[in-house]
Amino acid sequence: MLTCWVVLTLAALLGCAPGPGASTQAPAGAATSPTRRAPEPLRGAPDEPPGALGVADGRLPDATTVFDDDDPGVVRLDPHLRAALRRAATDAGRAGVEVRLTSGWRSAAYQEQLLEDAVSMYGSRAEAARWVATPATSPHVSGDAVDIRNADATTWLAEHGSHYGLCQVFRNEPWHFELRPAAAQGSCPAQYRDPSHDPRMTR
Questions:
Q1: Mean pLDDT calculated for residue range 96-121
Q2: How many Å apart are CA 106 and CA 196, to the nearest integer?
Q3: Torsion region of 141: left, alpha or beta (phi above 0 gives left; psi -120 to 50 gives alpha)
Q4: pTM for the full model?
Q5: Integer distance in angstroms from the first to the last C-alpha of the chain?
Q6: Chain segment 143-157, per-residue pLDDT in tens
């Protein structure tokens, strides 16, 4: 009997058999079987939470210029607008002004997010419409507009942009430019007070 007890005790101490009352569960922090691992979460870019709208939707890094062909927000602009912007940016660069973009082309999902954010900020869709168009009417979604990031470039384009057909469209958004080819032979058309006064926004 004593021999049997010694054998069982040694087996328990050496891990060959569980001792009386021992748990059969793995200790906390122990590695689980590879077949039981939870799947890795989907990840966006390093600075984006999972599921966030990102570069593929038209978000642009701070230093983006009209020459950055790796960014969908630039590449998916209307080709005529992009060409006019590049001509203007080249001449602006000779004057010591770099033209950087806040926004260019946007996906419909990105535009919808911006609109929802504006409704939350301004308290109503009517007030938000003074700043953000719907995905169905936004010239950003169609690739026909850009927002200029830096003030010196906005000032330069306000003065010289018409030579390239680039015009400010809304008085409350001096950073917003669209292509108006006829302006190259004359001047830009009168600006709308804000997007809610633009007939395109009521389609």
A1: 96
A2: 19
A3: alpha
A4: 0.74
A5: 94
A6: 999 999 999 999 999
Distance CA 118, CA 2 (A): 81
Flag whether pLDDT at 117 surpasses 70. Answer: yes
Please give the single-letter amino acid code of residue 9: T
Token match 């996906």: residue? 107
- Other CB atoms within 10 Å distance of the CB of residue 70: 8
Question: Read out DSSP for the chain?
Answer: -HHHHHHHHHHHHHTSS--TT---SPPTTPPPPGGGPPPPPP--STTS-TT---GGGT---TT-BTT-TT-HHHHTS-HHHHHHHHHHHHHHHHTT---BEEE----HHHHHHHHHHHHHHHSSHHHHTTT---TTT-TTTTT-EEEE-SHHHHHHHHHHGGGGTEEEEETTEEEEEEE-GGGGGS-PPPPBSSGGG-GGGG-
CA distance 55 to 38: 28
CB 167 within 8 A of CB 183: yes
Per DSSP, what are the bridge partners of residue 178? 145, 167
Place of tokens 């939470």: 49
**For the chain, which domains are there?**
55-202 (3.30.1380.10)
**Sheet containing 166-170: order of strands:** 101-103, 145-148, 173-179, 166-170
Nearest to 178 by CA among 77, 68, 57: 77
Pair type for strands 173-179 and 166-170: antiparallel
